[in-house]
Design a protein that fits this description.
Keywords: Mitochondrion, Ribonucleoprotein, Ribosomal protein
GO molecular function: rRNA binding; structural constituent of ribosome
Shape: extended
Order of helices and strands: HEEEEEEEHEEEEEEHE
Number of strands: 14
Largest sheet: 4 strands, antiparallel
CATH topology of the largest domain: Outer Surface Protein A, domain 3
Mean pLDDT: 86
CATH architecture of the largest domain: Alpha-Beta Complex
Protein name: Large ribosomal subunit protein uL6m
Helix content: 10-25%
Strand content: 25-35%
Oligomer: single chain
Pfam families: Ribosomal_L6
Distance between the termini: 73 Å
Low-confidence stretches: none
Organism: Parathielavia appendiculata
Length: about 250
């Protein structure tokens, strides 16, 4: 029984050479199986720098920035060493700390009251992603310690009410306030405020959250919202700030 002739043997047979000789053919005559595959980029556009990351940050009066040296932070999900740098933002309303990767460079001009961010390698996707993300975090921290952040919750529904009251037997730290909600359940919903946040109820259907950490405020607002997520048929629920919902028509059988 004869063995099947391979493609390379067939090529030498067609050209009339021995397998030990090298065959040089034009590119359009070489079969696709013998051509070296070239990697094609998903996008032909060049990598652009971050629009937010390259924008300088201005530091308002009364706010101070302190940048620490590199340190190793242990990561439980990896054996590799992770280098971080800590930025301490201190202002009239409080103090916040931000950890940034080592490839994000920060240039602080104390005389001009401005901060500029950059990355070591703009061709790396993860560095470009963290460029603008670090800028947003730092901007929120600067605004938080100088002016503060707020979030307004609107309760839309019959019988929905909100109050801010103390609960001495349930408090986790002295003076903790609780947001008490009546949302149509058989029991009231009571959520304790994290440390450093303030809440008030200027109206029975309005809750005002105040603090220096925007991420903490919006996370607590999301925890309240999940008890009554806005529904699209009657428009009832808990809305955060300017949140709206598009109403749907009722299902008619």
């Amino acid at each position: 029984m004869l063995a099947p002739r391979t493609g390379r043997q067939a090529l030498h047979r067609a050209v009339g050479t021995s397998p030990s000789q090298t065959v040089i053919l034009p590119g359009f005559l070489v079969p696709a199986a013998f051509q070296t595959p070239t990697r094609r980029n998903f996008s032909a556009t060049t990598a652009r720098p971050s629009k937010l990351g390259r924008t300088p940050l201005s530091i308002p009066p009364g706010v101070e920035l302190a940048i620490s040296d590199l340190f190793i932070k242990k990561d439980m999900t990896s054996y590799l060493k992770t280098y971080k740098r800590k930025i301490t933002v201190k202002g009239p309303l409080g103090q916040l700390e931000l950890e940034i990767p080592d490839y994000v460079n920060i240039e602080h001009d104390a005389a001009a009251k401005r901060v500029e961010l950059s990355v070591k390698d703009r061709d790396q996707r993860n560095q470009r992603e963290m460029w603008g993300t670090t800028w947003s975090y730092l901007n929120n921290y600067i605004m938080g310690v100088s002016e503060g952040h707020t979030a307004v919750l609107r309760l839309v529904g019959i019988g929905y009410r909100a109050t801010v009251e103390p609960r001495p037997k349930q408090e986790e730290y002295p003076g903790q306030q609780f947001v008490c909600l009546k949302l149509g359940f058989s029991h009231p919903v009571e959520l304790g405020l994290p440390k450093g946040m303030k809440a008030s109820a200027p109206q029975p259907t309005r809750v005002l959250l105040e603090g220096i950490d925007k991420e903490q405020i919006m996370q607590f607002a999301a925890n309240i919202r999940k008890w009554r997520v806005p529904e699209p048929y009657k428009g009832k629920g808990i809305f955060i700030n300017d949140e709206t919902i598009k109403l749907k028509q009722k299902k008619i059988k």
